[in-house]
């Protein structure tokens, strides 16, 4: 299966989370994302990460999710990055037939809804730095991993 990377837009990404963009002339946009912590004992983790570029085409082998926390990525120094998301299948694994791949500009942030299957963060072209916000309790379920059994390749056209 071949998935083509498309530019991100709010409506296409809506089943998986929110795209955060400049409020423009409004000066402020409140409640721009659905920040979710589904475990009372979890603490907020704001970290800074460096992501490396992914060579495309790319065969997807692993997906991850944070079942109890939303996860937001705020680009600090990046030109373009790649977001790959999939819905859950009936067996709670990622449904790779529903995989979507998006190119995101360096001035746009994204917020995954809690439980959204996604590929680990990667950039397009060169490395980049991001601030990340999520809730963690240090347990095994902070991040769920799933091996991808289907042959799924993401391409940039």
Q: Which CATH architecture is right?
A: Sandwich
Domain count, please report it: 1
Radius of gyration: 15 Å
Order of helices and strands: EEHEEEEEEEEEEEEE
Number of H/I helices: 1
Task: Predict the CATH topology.
Answer: Jelly Rolls
State the assembly state of the protein chains: single chain
Helical content (DSSP H or I, runs of 4+):
under 10%
Average pLDDT works out at 96
Most strands sheet:
5 strands, mixed
Q: What is the β-strand count?
A: 15
Distance between the termini: 15 Å
Q: Tell me the fraction of residues in β-strands, as a range.
A: 35-45%
Question: What is the CATH domain class?
Answer: Mainly Beta
Task: Return residue spans where pLDDT drops below 50 for at least 5 consecutive residues.
Answer: none
Structural commentary:
By secondary structure, this protein is an all-beta fold. The protein has one domain: Jelly Rolls, CATH 2.60.120.480. Helices cover 3% and strands 43% of the residues. The longest helix has 4 residues. The chain is globular and about 40 Å long. The mean pLDDT is 96.
């Amino acid at each position: 299966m071949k998935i083509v990377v498309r530019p991100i837009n709010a409506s296409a990404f809506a089943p998986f989370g929110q795209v955060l963009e400049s409020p423009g002339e409004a000066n402020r946009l409140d409640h721009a994302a659905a920040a979710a912590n589904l475990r009372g004992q979890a603490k907020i983790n704001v970290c800074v990460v460096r992501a490396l570029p992914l060579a495309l085409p790319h065969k997807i082998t692993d997906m991850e999710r944070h079942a109890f926390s939303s996860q937001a990525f705020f680009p600090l120094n990046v030109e373009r990055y790649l977001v790959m998301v999939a819905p859950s299948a009936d067996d709670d694994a990622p449904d790779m037939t529903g995989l979507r791949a998006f190119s995101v500009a360096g001035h746009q942030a994204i917020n995954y809804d809690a439980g959204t299957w996604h590929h680990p963060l990667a950039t397009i072209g060169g490395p980049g730095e991001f601030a990340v916000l999520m809730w963690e309790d240090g347990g095994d379920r902070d991040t769920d991993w799933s091996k991808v059994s289907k042959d799924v390749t993401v391409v940039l056209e």
